[in-house]
Inverse folding.
């Protein structure tokens, strides 16, 4: 029967597994939302956000003028 | 603050949030796996309950910091009301669910940390609290980052 690794090795192994999950997730998500349709959708959303910020600034300026 | 978030992400606020939210969503699933070992529900030869619990705690600290960072970016950059109001047509409900689940998630995580660190009398509710945090993570992710990643 295989021997159980020491506590330190178990902790290190499980932490390394967590790090690998993080790396894999970052790689997959970045590949998915990279250049392409998804990226342009996100860009559209940011453009709407910028528009909103501009509108807010305009409103603030109008209030100041009043 | 908006400028700070914008410059930190080099203008890619949504993309950075999507990646970070996906990372914590995956790690939250890993946390559930670790605690099934921690509570002895699952036995694997290469990982014992004590080590699994230790890693659960360490990973949880990382998840907490990243989640609070994402929540901060969300609130500062998109704001609660505006996030719903300026969602695309037909997506207001999704944005609304995201806001509610995200807010509950932050509350549930804070409560879990309090129970783990100081309020030991409530320790018996930790498994339930943990499942609640995981479910809220999933709902929050699916109604935002997941919508972009999977929905396309």
């Amino acid at each position: 029967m295989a021997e159980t690794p020491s506590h330190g090795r178990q902790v290190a192994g499980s932490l390394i597994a967590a790090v690998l999950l993080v790396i894999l997730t970052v790689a997959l998500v970045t590949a998915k939302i990279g250049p392409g349709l998804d990226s342009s959708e996100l860009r559209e959303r940011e453009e709407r956000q910028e528009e909103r910020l501009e509108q807010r600034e305009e409103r603030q300026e109008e209030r100041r003028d009043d | 603050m908006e400028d700070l978030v914008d410059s930190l992400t080099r203008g890619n606020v949504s993309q950075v949030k999507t990646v970070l939210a996906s990372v914590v969503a995956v790690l939250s699933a890993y946390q559930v796996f670790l605690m099934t070992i921690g509570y002895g529900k699952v036995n694997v030869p290469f990982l014992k309950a004590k080590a699994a619990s230790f890693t659960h705690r360490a990973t949880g600290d990382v998840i907490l910091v990243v989640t609070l960072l994402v929540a901060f970016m969300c609130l500062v950059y998109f704001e609660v009301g505006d996030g719903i109001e300026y969602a695309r047509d037909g997506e207001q409900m999704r944005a609304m669910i995201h806001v509610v689940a995200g807010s509950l998630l932050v509350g549930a995580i804070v409560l879990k940390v309090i129970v783990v660190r100081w309020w030991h009398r409530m320790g018996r509710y930790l498994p339930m609290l943990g499942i609640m945090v995981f479910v809220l993570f999933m709902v929050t992710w699916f109604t935002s980052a997941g919508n972009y990643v999977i929905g396309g």
